[in-house]
Amino acid sequence: MGNRARWRALTATGALLGAGLLALPPAAAAAEYERVVNGDFASGEVNPWWNGAGTTGSVVGGEFCTEVTGGTVNGYDALVGQNGVAFEAGQPYTLKFDARAATPQPISAVAGEAVDPYRQIARTEVQLTTEPQSFTYTFDSTLDFPTAGNGQLAFWFGGQSFDNTICVDNVSLVGGVKPPPGLEPAAPVRVNQTGYLPGLPKRASVANESTTPVPWTLKNAAGTAVASGQSTPKGLDPNSGEHVHLVDFSAYETVGTGYTLTVGADTSHPFDISPDVLKDLRYDSLAFFYHQRSGTPIEAEYAGAEHARPAGHLNVAPNQGDHDVPCLAGVDCGYTLDVPGGWYDAGDHGKYVVNGGISAWQLLNEYERALRVGDASALGDGKLAIPERGNGVPDILDEAKWEVDFLLKMQVPDGRPLAGMAHHKIHDAQWTGLPMLPHLDPQVRRLSAPSTAATLNLAAVAAQAARLWKEIDPAFSAQALAAAEKAYQAARANPAKLADPNDGTGGGAYSDGTVTDEFYWAAAELFATTGGSGYRADLTGSPLYKGASFNARGFDWGSTGALGDITLALVPTALPAADVAAIRQAITTTADGHLAQMAAQGHPAPYRTQDGSYEWGSNGLIANNGVVLALAYDFTKQAKYREGAFGVMDYLLGRNPVNYSYVSGWGEQPVRNVHHRHWANQLDPSLPIAPAGALSGGPNSALQDPISAGLLKGCPAQRCFVDHIEAYSVNEVTVNWNSALAWLANWAAEKSTVDTPPAACSVSYQANGWNSGLSASVVLKNTSAVAWNGWTLKFAFSGNQQLQHGWSATWSQQGAEVTAVNLPWNASVAPGASVTIGFNASSPGPATAPASFSVNGSTCK
């Protein structure tokens, strides 16, 4: 779910036709092509209609009713409209609509251009009464917007001294000779446009009507055939609506660039074969978050000159800013908050706790997973182009902290009603248009009411942060943990404060009717950090305990139970080993379901809904299901899961029915025109396209914007996509989709080569015991010929000893088994080098040394 874009409205700079429109003769033969989307408001949704400044609208009783603030001078000072309306020069159009007003007043219906210079085609003024009236007008278009790009239909309500409520319904605009464009066929041969890795499957999908195998040829950059074979007919593929063949050229392993695959007369985009094809995507996908930072300049030193911009929302004109922000009208909080910083959520300027929560968690989990079962060295200090590099803290943690700090600011202050709860979001009071750089946003900013979901997001992420910063910054760790525990108790005291689903003006509503999953997630994070018995009871007593949240659809900002389970599967706790095993089994079982689904598809993607449709942000769900496949490999080392996770990257990078790489800057045909207010080159050539590494939301069967609704009506699920800046329901970007990509891209870079056997090691153990305890020093030595980039020590106590305190590592105990994981500063151990760690434990019996030790799974001498 994301924002609803609003283009700048028509202004008086256009030619006014006025009442003369009424005198136009009826069109002789207007074509029956409907140009307006959602004109009857039967769905109960306003979208894709928008409200301009000074108006607030919603669907009431099947009508689109707008509250209009009086005191405006011009009609266009208060207006509603729809963009992406197609007009063809010289063609006749018939406009019909019903309208009424609480207080009689005139309004104008205006057809024209949505962007500068805002030319008008036709305008008529009508007088509304308190009773609904039907209006019909015919005109010829003087402008040409045949592809539904910059055309607009608007109703002007301003120019009156009094407040009013105006309702419209049954809006229809019929005309033109060209039908809505519909789906354009994509090139038939679809590959991962970035490339394939040696030792992994190399497969392509081909749209081809043949019912028998067809020949294929793999060519190198010089055009020389290097491999050939026959395709495998897959039959009709429901997700693409095409007959699909599969091509498998996995046997070809020669590293090179510029390969192409030819099937009949059709040739793919070029691609590489190399173990390094995905190495840099983890950094590009993480760079997205620096670009989205609020309250700080985005500097050319880090982002490049093209994407540099001033700081936004700092209470510097024309901004009204993120300092001293009051609550939304109707939300009586009695205070203001200073909430600068954080990440802009998507293509708008809103900042949402529930979306920021999962995004920050995923970056932190990316690092924590690498610490515990992977390689954290690639995420260390100096790896990202951000101002904090070189400060001794892993850059990914610095980036995540930018958002965590903001989340903490959203907490209701002590001494106030609902103290400890978190405000759901902050954004503009009204939608802004495109393009709009953050420092030019003139809208006032407003806090939405606190919600239980937002509060639990804060509790979960702050508890996770407390765990990861415990050794890095103990003061911040303590601050985060105090905020987390306060938030959790506030949520328990207010378990049903749900976000208003109608609070969608100026920013997305992000409403969530079920918070059982957020409670589970927060309890899991707090238990993993503190070991508290109350959190354990809440966790184990939840119906979601032991992996019940994992499913075929996947997890996202509104379905967060799986996040808690991922933490419990990775972080050692005092939970029974059998329960942790059950969580890991739920992950692998779900991963098996994803693999079965992918095997049945023409363009494999691990995602499915009950009705087969695709949702807003389907690519984010697909990437998160790739995370499940990746974790299944981490826990089992079974090659099928590694292959499946890389198959997800194939889909996102071009092996899909629209033949786009959904990641900007990656592949031969990447998305360029993502929905964004300052990556708006399609609207303003002086502005940039998206930087490399931004993940488009991808196919959405609901087509919830006028561009996609006009172009893609009737599309099969995986083809409901167009690369257009105003197609926000299919081509938006958000922090939580990019956090999913970043997690998966880092894993893929790490796993681009097969895991090597653990390095050799030796352990020296010395303990001093007394009647009730012992203190031990442990020296780990790297006896192999390669450096350790992260280590995990495991051993078992020989008696009933209980770990009490440890140093120079993250220590935990589960049953008799003890685990010590490196800290950031001692993760790297060169060949022949050693690292010394230690612990204190209670010891009812003699301080007998453990029978054996292992480092990274290898038994030490």
From TrEMBL:
CDD domains: E_set_Cellulase_N (cd02850). The keyword Hydrolase applies. One of its GO terms (molecular function) is polysaccharide binding. PROSITE patterns: CBM2, CBM2_A, GH9_2, GH9_3, TAT. GO terms for biological process: cellulose catabolic process. The active site is at residues 675, 723, 732. It catalyses: Endohydrolysis of (1->4)-beta-D-glucosidic linkages in cellulose, lichenin and cereal beta-D-glucans. Belongs to the glycosyl hydrolase 9 (cellulase E) family. The lineage of its organism: Bacteria, Bacillati, Actinomycetota, Actinomycetes, Pseudonocardiales. It is an enzyme of class 3 (hydrolase). Residues 1-30 form the signal peptide. The keyword Cell membrane does not apply. Its EC number is 3.2.1.4. It holds the Pfam family CelD_N. It comes from the Bacteria. This is Endoglucanase. SMART domains: CBD_II. InterPro entries: 6-hairpin_glycosidase_sf, 6hp_glycosidase-like_sf, CBD2, CBM2/CBM3_carb-bd_dom_sf, CBM2_carb-bd_dom_sf, CBM2_CS, Cellulase_Ig-like, CenC_carb-bd. Keywords: Carbohydrate metabolism, Cellulose degradation, Glycosidase, Hydrolase, Polysaccharide degradation, Signal. It comes from Amycolatopsis albispora. Residues 754-861 form the CBM2 domain.
